[in-house]
TrEMBL record, chain A:
UniProt keywords, alphabetically: Amino-acid transport, ATP-binding, Cell membrane, Membrane, Nucleotide-binding, Transport
Lineage: Bacteria, Bacillati, Bacillota, Bacilli, Bacillales
Classification via Pfam families: ABC_tran
SMART domains: AAA
GO cellular component: plasma membrane
Keyword hit for RNA-binding: no
SUPFAM superfamilies hit by this protein: P-loop containing nucleoside triphosphate hydrolases
InterPro entries hit by this protein: AAA+_ATPase (IPR003593), ABC_ATPase_HisP-typ (IPR030679), ABC_transporter-like_ATP-bd (IPR003439), ABC_transporter-like_CS (IPR017871), MetN_ABC_transporter-like (IPR050086), P-loop_NTPase (IPR027417)
Protein name (record): Polar amino acid transport system ATP-binding protein
Record localization: Cell membrane
TrEMBL record, chain B:
Organism: Salirhabdus euzebyi
Pfam family name, one: BPD_transp_1
Entries under InterPro entries matching the protein: AA_ABC_transptr_permease_3TM (IPR010065), ArtM/GltK/GlnP/TcyL/YhdX-like (IPR043429), MetI-like (IPR000515), MetI-like_sf (IPR035906)
Ranges annotated as spanning the membrane: 20-43, 190-208
Protein name: Polar amino acid transport system permease protein
Amino acid sequence: MIKVRNLVKHFGKDEVLKDISLDVEEKEVVVIIGPSGSGKSTLLRCFNKLEESTSGTIEIQGVHVDKSNINQIRTEVGMVFQHFNLFPHKSVLENVMIGPIKVRKWSHEAAKDKAVALLKRVGLESKADSYPASLSGGQKQRVAIARALAMEPKIMLFDEPTSALDPEMVGEVLAVIKDLAQEGMTMVVVTHEMGFAREVGDRVIFMDQGKIVEEGIPNTIFTSPKEERTKVFLDKVL
Amino acid sequence: MDFNMNIIIEYWPFFLKGALLTLGISIAGIIIGAVIGLFISFGRMAPNKWIRIPFSLYINSLRGTPVLIQLFIVHYALLPAIYPPGTAVTSAIVTLSLNSSAYVAEIFRAGIQSLDKGQTEAARSLGMTKVQTMRYIIVPQAVRRMIPPLGNEFITLIKESSLAGIIAAEELMYWGKAAMGQYQRVWEPYIAVAIIYLVIVFSLTYLLQWIEKRWVQRD
Ligand SMILES: Nc1ncnc2c1ncn2[C@@H]1O[C@H](COP(=O)(O)OP(=O)(O)O)[C@@H](O)[C@H]1O
Ligand SMILES: [Mg+2]
């Protein structure tokens, strides 16, 4: 589903992604872990070109991502941000409807049916007419997930979806993501929730200083990492 | 001190006429200023530094000099040079438009730049084009943020329009001065004029607060 080859990204003189190659298979859940500043967000944002890569190639569903097809590709790739980025001037329902209506050109009724169903799914149908400012962090993030799902994406990208949440709200958001994984959604999740990584991830990637240091199935990475840097990191966070 | 109400009663129709012109000049100034200011603000936000420089020079010159000097330059030098039979009212509108365009440009810029970059990213990640993102996500939020400072700018403009009386535009202040000249009385005409300004400004302030409550304060 995602095929990355020799991806390099510079910010000015800083090389923040150094020759990254990576494949994500259909229905696979890939979890990316690593210290802050290691380039996890930048990598994720290169997938849908929120960040322009310096060199290297990215294919999504067999299509080479470039300027000409990026809007089309973005409709297939949902993204959930650390800070939710809900549209504050739109109600919860409108937040979820706007993508299908403006981008997919669905009718208002079809978009509304879809949005109501998704809000029900994330447990927020009662908040449809509220505005984002009145929601808790966990509720906001669940709306953000519903908004992304409304486009019926084939792939979902999550960039630290629970890092901005109070601890008691982490669970409700992870439950929604877990549910998606069980349904077979292809996902790439950047997270610091190691328990979640272990339970839901098909594969864990450890990044440090712009490189993929180590990858493997969660059990192996968490119990017997090969690389010294992975061990040091895991000792700190576990 | 005796207070001669008759002066005010006699001049009342002129004060009202003057107040209408004051409002007219200010409304014209804020509208033309907003249109020019919108263009100036995009120039001011241009990615290229050499494009930005003249626009920020324009903004800083107008914000850094007294309105009275701007009015004199427009009335006695600029307009006579390009449009000789100009009237005082034309000069006042041109001056207030130019002056407010500089302030409005900065208000627009602040409104757009104060929005979190995440708003654009969220919209683009749904597949919206740049134009759709501007139209449905950025501009509606920026406009809501601009209403309070634009309202303040309008109120400032109403007060500054009183300078037009100096070049004999027949707005509110002009009639206050006329009444004072005729009767050699200061209190009556100027108190009356000051109260009319106050009524205008307070009504506007109230209107703005009402608008803000209705649809600005959502985030
Ligand atoms: N827009 C940017 N401009 C300059 N440097 C950036 C920008 N975004 C990220 N960086 C830098 O790139 C590196 C990787 O950042 P990021 O991908 O956010 O790491 P992570 O998500 O793993 O914490 C960091 O050193 C960060 O300072
Ligand atoms: Mg990050």
